[in-house]
Design a protein that fits this description.
This protein is of the alpha/beta class. The chain has a single domain, classed as Rossmann fold, CATH 3.40.50. Helix content is 52%, strand content 14%. The strands form two sheets. The protein has a six-stranded parallel sheet with strand order 4-3-8-7-5-6, with helices on both faces. Strands 1-2 form a two-stranded antiparallel ribbon. Helix 6 links the parallel strand 5 and strand 6.
């Protein structure tokens, strides 16, 4: 299966349905900030490109990529991917482990996802102890919500130490939405691709990150289109 390279990061061009059928191993979900960081952090870029699957999460990244002729089938939100995978895993009787967030957030996320969750640990726990706990309960799937680049580095460094895990995904702040700590945007806002603005309104402290990602990616697009 071919890859679509966008500013040095190699993406898999999959729809949600295709992703649900195909993804395995180490999966990353980049958005604009990832691409901007990868231009300066070669180690991070290499980790992204070492993943088995790289799916475009950010709507802004999806649209910007089209401006330079890199068309992807769709952007895949981590929250939606988790819900869809969880439904699939319940049918298959697969077991999930959650790592990340505060103790309250990860506990509520586990309760919301239900019987497919075999264990969880908050994001302030020692990584080695988490690996030991994962190996004790032997999940099939690991969702890591530590924020980037910490979650990608954790999976990259530890996946081979957890032989039962067949799928590991860095999911960013998805636990905050699933747990209800942060209310997700109404459906009509999601449909018009302004979910990023909704999150900025409910979490104004993210403004520096959001605009850093937007303007950083915009600069890359302008350079690609007009100054190659």
């Amino acid at each position: 299966m071919g890859k679509t390279e966008i500013f040095g990061v190699k993406f898999d061009d999959l729809s949600m349905n295709e992703a649900l059928e195909k993804i395995q191993g180490f999966v990353v979900l980049p958005y604009s900030e990832f691409i901007v960081r990868a231009q300066k952090d070669e180690e991070f870029k290499n980790i992204l490109n070492s993943a088995d699957f790289c799916l475009c999460e950010g709507r802004g990244l999806y649209l910007m990529a089209r401006l330079i002729g890199k068309k992807l089938k769709q952007n895949i939100y981590g929250v939606d991917l988790i819900y869809n995978l969880n439904s699939k895993f319940k049918i298959q009787n697969s077991k999930l482990f959650l790592f990340g967030g505060t103790e309250d957030v990860v506990k509520k996320t586990a309760e919301k996802l239900g019987d497919s969750i075999i264990g969880y640990e908050h994001g302030y726990q020692d990584a080695n102890r988490v690996v030991d706990k994962i190996n004790l309960v032997k999940p099939d799937v690991l969702l890591v919500g530590l924020g980037s680049p910490k979650q990608e580095k954790f999976i990259h460094e530890n996946l081979k130490k957890m032989p039962s895990v067949k799928l590991a995904i860095g999911v960013g702040g998805a636990f905050d939405f699933i747990s209800g700590r942060i209310k997700r945007a109404p459906k009509f806002i999601q449909k018009i691709s302004l979910e990023w603005l909704w999150r900025l309104i409910v979490e104004p402290k993210r403004i520096e990150r959001v605009f850093g990602g937007f303007f950083g990616l915009s600069a890359l697009v302008i350079k690609e289109k007009f100054f190659r």
